[in-house]
Amino acid sequence: MKTPHIFRESPVLLRLLLLLSGVRIDGYRPVIIVHGIFDGPKQFKTLSLYITKVHPGTEVSVIDLYDDLASLRPLWRQVQDFSNVFHSIVQKAPDGVHLLCFSQGGLICRALLSVTPHHNVHTFVSLSSPLAGQYGDTDYLKGIFPCLKKAVFRICYNKMGQKLSICDYWNDPHHRSRYLRSNNFLPILNGERPHIDIKAWRENFLRIKKLVLIGGPDDGVITPWQSSHFGFYDSNENIVEMRKQEFYKSDTFGLKALEDRGDVEVCVHSGVKHVHWHSNYTVFTSCIEKWLT
Fold first, then answer.
1. Beta strands 60-62; 97-102: pairing state
2. Using an 8 Å Cβ cutoff, are 101 and 131 in contact?
3. 105 close to 36: Cβ distance less than 8 angstroms
4. What CA–CA distance (Å, rounded) separates 33 from 101?
5. CA 32 to chain CA mean position, Å
6. Residue 27 and residue 57 in contact, taking contact as beta carbons nearer than 8 Å
7. DSSP string of 170-194?
8. pTM
9. How far from 229 is each of 47, 196, 226, 242, CA to CA, in Å?
10. pLDDT value at position 234?
11. What CATH code would you report for 24-291?
12. Catalytic residue among 114, 219, 227, 269, which?
C-alpha cells in the first residue's frame, strides 16, 4: 500500500501521527533481565536469543550482580546495587525499557519499581516469582535449612535470619504477627507494615504500563505456586487468590489500581518446572513475546 500523498510531502506529520498512535518507529525497547536465586547471566542465554530472534536489534541486558551463592545476600542490599546498574541502562533509553525478572529477581524488580521515582519501565514481566512470599519444603530450601518448613520461622524471623534473602520473603501463615513484625522486606514492600514512603512507592510502582504475571502448578519450587500471581495461604493453608488478599483490597502498593486500569495480565502454564521457565519456548511465545515491543 502506498503512503498517502500528504504524508510523503510531510514526513514530520507522519512521524507525529505514529507517535500519537503508540506505534514505535525506532525499534524495540531495551529489555533488562534480573536473574533469580543461585542464578547468573549464563542461565539466560537462551531467553536472550529468543528475544533477539523475534525482535531483531533488541538490546538485552542481563544484570551481572549477586550471582550464584551471592544471591543469598539481603534483598534490600541487592536492590540498592541492582538499582545502580538499572539506572545506567534506563538513562540511555528515553522511550522506556522492559523489565523481565525471574524467581527471586521478581521481588528485586518489584522493589526497584517501588523505590525509584520517575522510572521509565514500560512492562514488568514477573516470571515464576514468589510475589506474595514463600512457604514450603523445596529442594532449594532443604539445601540451606535442614529442617521442616514449620520450623524455618525460628531462623528467619530474627536479626540474623534477615541477612539471608530467602528469609526476606519467608511468609509463614501460622506466624503472621511475627512475619509482620520481624520480616524487614516483604511486609514493607506489600504495604502490610505502614511506613513513611508508602504513598510515594505506590505512585512509583504505578508508572509501569503493564504487569505480566507468569507461573504454573508444576513449578516445584515457588510454594504455593499461586504466589507467582499474588495468591497465598491463609492460616489453614488454603489458597487465597490475589483479589482477596488484604494488600489488594486495600491497594497498598497499587496492584488493584493497576488491574482496574486493565494492565494486569496473568499467564498460567502447566508442565513447566521452575528452572525451565526461562528456556521454554512455548512460555516465551505465549506469555512474554507480545509484551516486549
1. unpaired
2. no
3. yes
4. 6
5. 11
6. yes
7. B--TT-HHHHHHH-SSHHHHTTSS-
8. 0.89
9. 21, 27, 5, 7
10. 97
11. 3.40.50.1820
12. 219
Strand order in the sheet with 210-215: 60-62, 31-34, 97-102, 121-127, 210-215, 264-268
User: Which one of 35, 119, 175, 274 is the catalytic residue?
Assistant: 274
Q: Which of 201, 206, 213 is nearest to 258 (CA)?
A: 206
Residues belonging to the chain: 293
- Report CA Rg, the chain: 20
Q: Mark whether 219 is an active-site residue.
A: yes
Grid cell 524455618 in the structure block, residue: 152
Of the residues 35, 39, 71, 103, only one is catalytic, namely 103
**Cell numbers given for 274:** 521452575
Cβ contact 263:209 at 8 Å = yes
Q: pLDDT tens digit string along 217-254? A: 999 999 999 999 999 999 999 999 999 999 999 999 99
| Residues 186 and 171 sit within 8 Å (Cβ to Cβ) | yes
Taking only the tens place, the pLDDT of each residue in 150-207 is 889 999 999 999 999 999 999 999 999 999 999 999 999 999 999 999 999 999 999 9
Grid cell, residue 263, equals: 494492565
Comparing CA positions, the residue from 112, 46, 59 lying closest to residue 84 is: 112
Q: b/e per residue, 88-104, with b = 16+ CB within 10 A? A: eebeebeebbbbbbbbb
